[in-house]
Specification:
D-Maltodextrin-Binding Protein, domain 2, four-stranded mixed β-sheet, 42% helix, globular
Length: 437
């Protein structure tokens, strides 16, 4: 059995090691046939007065963003449940999770990405996650899509998302105004503005070309703006990734590098350097996630935000739920009833409002009060489109991971002019496993 578990773990690590990004928990690898550890509280009753300690892993890649808010969330939880002590550490990244899997030393709770990728489904398949369905958690505040994020084969496996992630253009209003550039109403105005900024000696858009995920944000923003319908059709098997709109979108990213819109040294620039170039005025804009809003607000600049518009002026943004508060329970946890209480607290308005007030995210639940007017600006778009990474993940197999090929092969080659948009689309098409019609 130990050998079998080790083989399953290695297979899971090999297939999905690249999917988790600062953007786990597990059983004995017998496809969920083992009874979960601990006592199941099917009636949602309060856990006993036993003093227990729960080990919780936070998102190491986003520690700077989340540390203060989770101090407050965890303090409020422990005030409510004084017999439950939390050992909360920002310890989770790809490497630590994979090591914990192999060593069978997982924490009681850890963050997961729901249906953003197929990672959680694989963990469920191999019996690693606690089924939360018997606890009858109160989900009345959540929409069906939010419930679906945490559901595999009709069963619930994590606390629910309550915030929306997307990629927008953050811009320096003062630099835009000084150079006669405004937030664009359509695609042509967007490109004309970039040309003006470049002519003024500025880097139009700061890009972290050295960072695998951060250099992908322009693609993630361009994909729904320029090729949403084609991506939807490809995911359904009604079209292909070689669609001219997808090839054009990929070529546009290369064109931005060729035209110098990302500056001269972006290939050697990491995320922190790209952010600094923007906040110190060397770059007029940066394409980043809504989760980074607080960082730019704290810089003190005259900050503006807009989604990339298409040629008709329609603003279609990548849609994705935030995984900042979506946690699962290891099937090996000795205190599942108490761990469920932590998930219930993360599902509460109290915890969600603490995160909103601290970080400033786009709420998906109406009773969460937006932090400020800037948050409302982040939510100004016409349509929530697809996430290209999720589309490619859906078209991937264990043998051929199209999403991984985008990140590790296609984007680097586009940045270095080693491939064209049409060639890149063909590479992704070859890797894709389309659903049967």
């Amino acid at each position: 059995m130990k050998l079998r578990r080790f083989v399953l773990v290695l297979a899971l690590v090999a297939m999905f090691g690249a999917l988790l990004q600062g953007c786990g928990g597990y059983n004995n690898g017998n496809s969920g046939t083992k009874e979960p550890a601990g006592t199941t509280n099917n009636k949602g009753e309060e856990p006993s007065d036993e003093k227990v300690t729960l080990k919780v892993w936070g998102d190491l890649g986003n520690q700077a963003t989340l540390e203060e808010s989770f101090k407050q969330i965890n303090a409020a939880f422990q005030d409510k449940y004084p017999n439950i002590k939390l050992e909360y550490d920002f310890a989770q990244n790809d490497q630590s999770l994979n090591v914990a899997l192999q060593a069978n030393e997982l924490p009681d709770l850890f963050w997961v990405q729901g249906d953003k990728t197929s990672k959680m489904a694989e963990m469920v398949k191999n019996g690693f996650l606690k089924d939360l369905t018997p606890y009858n958690m109160d989900l009345s505040r959540f929409a069906d899509a939010e419930k679906a994020y945490c559901t595999i084969d009709g069963k619930l496996y994590c606390s629910l998302p309550s915030f929306f992630d997307t990629n927008v253009v953050y811009y320096n209003k003062d630099l835009f105004e000084k150079n006669g550039v405004q937030a664009p109403a359509n695609w042509d105005e967007f490109v004309q503005g970039l040309d003006k900024l470049k002519a003024a000696g500025l880097t139009p858009i700061a890009l972290a070309g050295k960072s695998e995920w951060d250099r992908a944000w322009p693609i993630f923003a361009l994909a729904p703006a320029l090729s949403n319908e084609a991506l939807v059709k490809a995911q359904k098997g009604e079209g292909k990734l070689t669609d001219p709109a997808i090839a054009h979108m990929l070529q546009t990213f290369r064109d931005f590098t060729d035209k110098g819109y990302f500056g001269k040294d972006f290939l050697a620039q990491d995320y922190a350097a790209a952010q600094l170039a923007f906040t110190n005025g060397k770059a007029a804009a940066i394409i980043d996630g809504t989760w980074a809003n607080a960082t730019y607000v704290d810089s003190g600049m005259n900050l503006g935000r807009f989604p990339i518009p298409n040629k008709e002026g329609k603003k279609i943004v990548q849609s994705s739920y935030s995984n900042f508060m979506t946690y699962a329970i290891s099937n090996e946890s000795k205190h599942p009833d108490q761990a469920v209480k932590y998930l219930e607290f993360l599902n509460s308005l109290e915890a969600q409002q603490i995160l909103e007030d601290s970080v400033g995210l786009v709420p998906t639940i109406k009773d969460i009060t937006p932090k400020d007017e800037g948050i409302k600006e982040l939510a100004v778009f016409d349509e929530a489109g697809v996430n290209i990474y999720s589309v490619l993940t859906a078209l991937s197999t264990q043998e051929s991971n199209a999403a991984d090929i985008l990140m590790k092969d296609v984007i680097p080659k586009l940045m270095t002019a080693a491939t064209t948009g049409e060639e890149a689309a063909a590479v992704l098409d070859k890797a894709a496993n389309y659903p049967a019609k």
